[in-house]
Amino acid sequence: MKTRLSGVIWLVFGLAVVVLMPSDQSLWIDEGFTVPYAQEDSFSEFTSRLESEQGSEALMPLGMFATWAGAKIFGQSELGLRAVSALWAAVAVLLLWRIGARVGVAWLPALLACHPFLWYYAGEVRPYAMAIAMGSGLLYALVTVLSSQRETRRGLYVLLIFGPLLCATHVLGVVPVAVVFGVIGFELLKRRWRPGTRDLPALGASGAVLALLGLYYLRVIPRGAGIVWEGPWKVGLSNLLFSGYELLGFLGFSPGRYELRKSAIEGGFGGVLQASAHPVTAGLVALALLYTLILLRFWSRSRSERPAAGRLAFMTGLAIILTVATIFALCLIVGTPFWGRHLASLLPFVVLFAGIAAEALSAAGRKPLNILALLLGATLLTSSLLVRFHPDHRRDDYRGAAAIARVAAQEGKTVWWTAAPETAKYYAVSFCEDGAPGQPACVVRTGNGDRKALAALPKPDVILISKPELHDTTGAVKNYIEEHRFRLTRRFMAFEEFELP
């Protein structure tokens, strides 16, 4: 009874924390690609957009649908759009509560709720918080099957539900689903378990959904939807390092993503280390030390005190390693880099492993005050609060840049916009057709144009540029700024404003 009550208390704490995750700060590039789905009025318009999609959104059909449906309930403000992701974060916390009750780690939902990876993606208009929720369901299925032979059928049914849902949320969800299917299948073969007659409809329905999803992805992938990447990043060790950095919760103790990105492009790994030299970096050391102590505790106690928990942690770790290795191999073949968000469904697995490893038992089997677990949760929560509230971790300020562009255009100035147009349109920036002023107060798009293309455009009074490695790959806009002696008048998150003297 006491254990059950403590689990409910941790659950309530976790759900209360989720409320703080979404914000009304500016949408950034990736969110701008999702917004058009939320703005579609009808389901037929939504499906039509999905059908013609050339970006990675075509590989997230259920995620895009959740955004479209959520906008009908919460509206299309920044906070309303992000509320959908926060709801999926709450679902993940609920499932971790059930998992924690099953494995005897009552504080597991609180540990997930304190994790900065969940905080970041629960505050973003993308389907990664949804992937975390579906990954939690996948983990629940794995834990149920491995922890109790009597509930094999329940665990299998959970797998048959959340497996297809995760695959539909994001195409890369196919990999962890296949891995967990393999682990559970191996366990069932060891038990010589055979499906009964009443299991066949569920198996058939889940298999049919997976087959339909397979046909859908086989149709959209050949047209290049979200597969080909053109940018400064290549597949390599940096993908593994930064993904682990995110999934272990270090992000809040480092410079913001934009600063890290800029430092990596300009100075490589050395530039990242130099940028990370500031006071909150002490949190990196503290968190790394905590993980080391937790692993040492787990290694010394797993065999003698909790063999079942040790086996469950081993199987969880195996699922993580196999999933990451497979995705890394696939990305090497395709030539497209991956980051922590592409492994979002693994976050519950990482949290469970850390929770089991940090759990402590006395010699008599009683649970003492777990100082390591408390310190881990507090450190992760500190990292989360920095990610959520520190100005260095704010997203690209498209709202501020769009306001400048609109005002300058209304004053009769010619504005060049060298940034993502999708997010600008959300903030009511009106672009000129074919690059020429064909309507009042319009803004000229100059993304990745060469010198000849820029010469054909009306001469600018104001230039707004963001992430030139993406939007000015030719360097033509930067050269134009230098040649015509534009002066930098304003710098804000991921943007620079230049004007004629």
SSE layout:
Blueprint lengths: L1 H17 L10 H11 L3 H10 L8 H14 L3 H26 L4 H6 L2 H6 L6 H20 L4 H18 L4 H18 L8 H21 L16 H11 L9 H19 L6 H20 L5 H28 L12 H12 L12 H19 L8 H13 L4 E4 L2 H6 L17 E2 L5 H5 L6 E4 L2 H4 L4 H8 L3 E6 L2 E5 L2
Parallel strand pairs: 1-2, 1-3
Antiparallel strand pairs: 3-5, 4-5
Structure described in brief:
The chain has 22 helices and 5 strands. The protein is mainly alpha-helical and 501 residues long.
Tally of structural domains:
2
| Gyration radius over CA | 24 Å
Helix content: 55-70%
Number of H/I helices: 22
Strand order of the largest sheet: 2-1-3-5-4
Shape summary = globular
Query: Span between N and C termini?
Result: 73 Å
Strand content: under 5%
Question: What is the H/E order?
Answer: HHHHHHHHHHHHHHHHHHEHEHEHHEE
User: Could you report the average pLDDT, rounded to the nearest whole number?
Assistant: 89
Protein structure class:
mainly alpha
Spans where pLDDT lies below 50 across 5 or more residues:
362-366
Q: Could you give a short account of the major beta sheet?
A: 5 strands, mixed
Number of strands: 5
Description:
With 501 residues, the chain is mainly α. It has two domains: 2-393, no CATH class; 398-499, no CATH class. Helix content is 62%, strand content 4%. It is built from 22 helices and five strands. It has a five-stranded mixed beta sheet with strand order 2-1-3-5-4, with helices on one face. Helix 19 links the parallel strand 1 and strand 2 (444-445). Helix 1 packs antiparallel against helix 5, helix 5 (78-103) runs parallel beside helix 8 (128-147) and helix 9 (152-169) packs parallel to helix 11. The longest helix has 28 residues, at 307-334. Residues 362-366 have low confidence and may be disordered.
